[in-house]
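My current task is to audit a protein record that another person submitted. I have pasted the whole thing underneath without changing anything:
***
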Amino acid sequence: MKKVVFLLFTFFLTVFSLQLYSQCTPDPGCVDDTVPGQICPAVLPQGTINVPYSQVMTIIPPATAVVSSQTVNIYKIVLTSINNLPPGITMQTDVANNTFMIYNVTNPKYCALLSGTPTDTGTYKLKIVTEVYINLFNNPLDAGAFTDSTSYFIKIISPGSGIIMADYRHFRIPTPANPFSFADKLQVISPYQQPISLKIFNCLGQKVYEENIKAVEGENYFQLNAGNLTDGLYIYSVSNANNTFNGRLVISKR
C-alpha cells in the first residue's frame, strides 16, 4: 500500500512539475550574430485588452561577460522574473527553475512564453531580473543579481482605438522629416537582422556621408553624425543586400 501511495505521489509530482514548463519552442531562425547573447524577436507585438495574447521569446544566453575589465565564462543564468508585464500576462520558460545552462551545453537556445489575457491598456516596459553564475573551475559561482531595463515593451490597446500594429514584414524607409535637422534620426524598418548602409550625396553626385548599422528586426535608426554638412538639398540612399531606397533630404540646422 505504501508503495502504491508513493508511486501516485511521484506521478502527480511529475505531472505538476511538467505543468510549470512552457510548451514553447525556440525559434531556429534566431541567431547570435551581434553581441554575446540574443533575444528574438527584437520587437514584441502589441496586444488588445480582453483578447488572449501569446508570444514566444527565444533566448540565446551569452557565454561570456566582462567583470572588472576581465572576460569571464558564464556557467548558467537564472531568470528570476520579468517585471512590469501587462496585468493578465504571465511568463513561463521551457526549463526547470528558469535556469539557462551554458556550461557544457552546445549552442544553448531557450524560450519563454508570454501569455494570458491583458486586463488593462498601456505601454509596459519590461524589466528582466537575472541571477548570473560564472564558471570557476567548472563550478558555478554566484556573481549576483542583475536587472536589465531593456528596450522591450508590450503595448496593450483598446479594441477599435485606431492604433495600427507595427508592420515589420518589409524592408522600408518611413518618410523622413523635411527639412531635416541633426536632432532627427533617419528611421529604417527591417524584417530581420541584417547589415544596412546609408549614403548621402550632394547635388553634384559626390558622396559626403556614409553610415553602416547592424539592423535588428523592427525599427532601426541612423544617427547621422554629419555636422559638417551645410544646409541644402541632398540625396540619400539606404541599401541592404537586395534593395536600395533613394530620396531627397533637405538639411537645415536652424
Summary: Confidence is low (pLDDT under 50) at residues 1-20. Residues 146 and 236 are 41 Å apart (CA to CA).
